[in-house]
Specification:
nine-stranded antiparallel beta sheet, 1176 residues, 37 helices, 39 strands, alpha+beta, single chain
Amino acid sequence: MTSDHSSYAAEMSSDEPKSADLQPASSGGSFSHRSISSNTWRANSIKEVGVIELGSKGGVRYGSRKGGSSSMSMSRREIRDEDSRLVYVNDPVKSNESLEFAGNSVSTSKYNVLTFLPRNLFEQFHRVAYVYFLIIAILNQLPQLAVFGRFASILPLSMVLLVTAVKDGYEDWRRHRSDRIENNRLSSVLVNNTFEQKKWKDIQVGEIIRFSANDTIPCDMVLLSTSDPTGVAYIQTINLDGESNLKTRYAKQETLRIHEVEKSSGVTIKCEKPNRNIYGFLGTMEVDHKQVSLGPSNIVLRGCVLKNTSWAVGVVVYTGMETKVMLNNSGAQSKRSHLEARMNREIIILSFFLVALCSIVSILAGIWLRRHRDELDIMPFYRRKDYSGEDVDNYKYYGWGMEIFFTFLMSVIVFQIMIPIALYISMELVRLGQAYFMIRDDNMCDESTNSRFQCRALNVNEDLGQIKYVFSDKTGTLTENKMEFQFASIFGVDYNGEKTEFYGEQGGYYAEVDGLILKPKMKVGVDGELVRLLKTGNDTNIGKQIYDFFLALASCNTIVPILEDTSNTAEKLIDYQGESPDEQALVYAAAAYGFMLIERTSGHIVIDVLGDRQRFNVLGMHEFDSDRKRMSVILGCPDSTVKVFVKGADTTMFNVIDKSKNKDVITATESHLHAYSSVGLRTLVMGMRGLTSQEFEQWRSSYEAATNALMGRARLLRKVAINLETNLSIVGASGIEDKLQQGVPEAIESLRMANIKVWVLTGDKQETAISIGYSSKLLTSKMTQIIINNNSTDSCKRSLEDALIVSRKATTSGENPRLLALIIDGTSLVYILDSELEEQLFELASKCAVVLCCRVAPLQKAGIVMLIKNRTNDLTLAIGDGANDVSMIQKADVGIGISGQEGRQAVMASDFAMAQFRFLVPLLLVHGHWNYQRMGYMILYNFYRNAVFVLVLFWYVLYTAFTLSTAINEWSSVLYSVIYTSIPTIVVGILDKDLSRTSLLNHPQLYGSGQKQESYNGTLFWLTMADTLWQSMVAFFIPLLAYRKTDIDGSSIGDLWTLAVVFLVNLHLAMDVTTWTWIIHASIWGSIVATIICVIIIDVIPILPGYWAIFHLAGDGSFWFCLIAIIVASLIPRFVLKTVIQRYRPSDIQIMGEVEKFGDLNESGSAEIEMNQPQR
């Protein structure tokens, strides 16, 4: 989405509304070795930002027109002493003596040597399951409850904690290393009259720093002077917000030589306290007892790079962790997988099941004790009395009630793995493996920019397979955000003829400057009729009107012309750098028609007009802001006249155009604008008027009063701009094409076939959005459009009621409700969101196949996302590319940032990032499906493999007088979840594919399995538990019956149960594997071999119980009979049930799996396959 400061074509509200400030500029300037001009005149812009914490407890009103206007910007009020800091220029000691400011050392790490262990453990024990296993381990240390060895009981938890701690420690070590490199970089600091090298970490507030071209700025500084005599500097903010276009900052005229020691004494800066607002700054500087105002254009921030300026000098105002970039270094909001949230519900059920098992054992133990209370003294395996000495003593017997209580606690210890602790670490490893394959997927790599898919959050991988709603920005997300000038309406005449590539018979228009040939870097097709009229000169009315139009395009902007070398030393290319792709397109268009901007300084611009170099003095400029939605420039023309040129969105421009003049022209222009919007073009309107000397002086005095105001400065400057931009004569309008990205129509069609609803939330005007909707196949001619454009609560209510009637009729008449398309504008949303009308909007929107929201502000985008999240359990995905998409990206269940033309704000706030919208199809339909299917199966399998082991122990307890003695060796119990069965689960969770990529892409409706939760749901959970119960009974009772009349000892039959259960659960897993690879083979069969080896090793250690048991056991034929019988009897019911379901009630996934194995059964005629249609 084009951000507010870079778009004029549409009404672009933002979380960071901006206000324009301007300054009459002096002329002059010099050339640098890389730039045509040494600097760009830029208004002294004060940009107001209402910073809103999305996670704050204060209610955010998504319907607010201002997007958070209740949070008053610092730029709107006077700086109070308690809200400010005082900086003494070139006197860091005095600056820091009253209130010591933060040093310039930064730390992005979480731990240090002392805090790593306690803090890391504290964070890990936020998982309730870890606390549970810690309690179990502590209970096992008590002599009365010691079921396992004390070391063995703490091993599983220790291993999980260790693995996580090593991972966290490694990540933090990398942060420490990065911080160390950053803090030890060097800068030139003024010390004792000379500039000396100083480490960044030692820089203090108040010090004066000099930095050169291509240097990274070490802290937040107020510019004092630059190599340009007018104090202008270019900076690149790519490290701050990702935007590569150059921006202009400048020093105040009063400070251009203040860095000289004798002139810096007594100079102070009073500025606001550190805050996160990277677009705003408010301060005043006292120089020679004169108050000088400071704004955002006077400050350069840490991480920015100086470009096209030889050197600059600044004074430090914020350092280290108090710099704006570090205050914004909080990352994206933490999100939690919905599958994991559902899993916790099943874990609670398992916890109740565990309590039930322990209660059964303890109650039955109490009954047994009461029944045999007279025999306890002499019973060999439960002697209560010790007769070995002269005096008869009691063994550790605590009475009937306490014995029951201890039995309960001991049961918890024995059955502890019913809650699968290894599942958490397995999920993390599986997500890491899934992320690796998503990143390495060449089908999601943009070859033109060599941009690969980025996985910035590992905890929502599986949510990609369950998305029901996609909320997409338009500009830069569905479109390329590479603007190209197409049509022009000049004084009521539409020039939309066929374009030619060249200007006349030359290779495009070029200008000659000082013996150099200058050509625009980007070629633009030109209209032959316009070119012919331009050649006639501006003596005629038509020629003058065309002259004014292209002069407006070339001058009314903040573009920086940059020279680039070519292979021909006599030829240079002009690269027009600017914050707005719209502005770049207009300036390139003006250059193609012979109005080439070749120089811009702080006081003038030079435009080559059809070979004639003309200089225009820039007397003032009002930048674009989201309230006015237009910008203006005051030019002193070569004929000594003063004119103001204004351009902006049509909704605001027609309010300031004098409609009493040229009514026919205005009507024609409006018609042309509608035509341009209808074919998907972005539109701008240009106006102008002449200024008399009296009007100019009045503006100048108003500006000076506003710019020197310490309170309400931004509001006053906005008022000055509004007073200037009135009674304009219309000049013309432009149509700029923002082409669709490659593959967008096909991607949207695939998503629709996958039963995913795509909503587009854009700031563009309605006609443009609708046109893009048709070209992207979001809208079709078969859809009934419901349009809501209202400006009051009552009218919105009536429109919603009427629309609901239409939608209900469509449903009852049998018409597919997905053929409805809702189109609503941001003004209507102001009155609907956060009101009682929200419920009606939700009801209406849920009946529509498509929702298109036009002219919406960033917080309204977040409000639309929350409209769905608060009322359904459906998963949402938001995708965008600009700063004004961050709010919806953070609110959605899954947020995706497009790494496009608008910087990296969206990427930095996202869970995943990619270069093109079309990559959403393989991400969701392929990787999303795989991730969900694998993770769902892995969770159920972990429940199963742990429960079957616990139930075998449970059956054994029932046959051993409830004494909680275990036949299975304690080390086998510990290693069961760590070595015997864990690795196959992880490998299958990463590598198994139930269907191929081709099938999933060719049949998008297969994605519905995730939306319908086919891989993980309550039914599957209870079926799994029933199967577990059966398998545990088979595994226990077959050996019991086989050896019931033998003298086999507990350790031997315990080894049989261990091997039987491990064989069983691994073969159970093998039955469900679809795609066999050598790694899966190695993990499953290798785990079985590893189990056999471990059991042998345990049994050859003399100090452990069961010495040599496995060798005696394996020599008996009954052992092998039991193993085979257990496996066959346990898996037959599962095999039969799977076969019956797949034969008589197959799912889409199973049908397609059969097609992949045996070919298209439709072609063979043996069966008819019909894919289940998605639910509407």
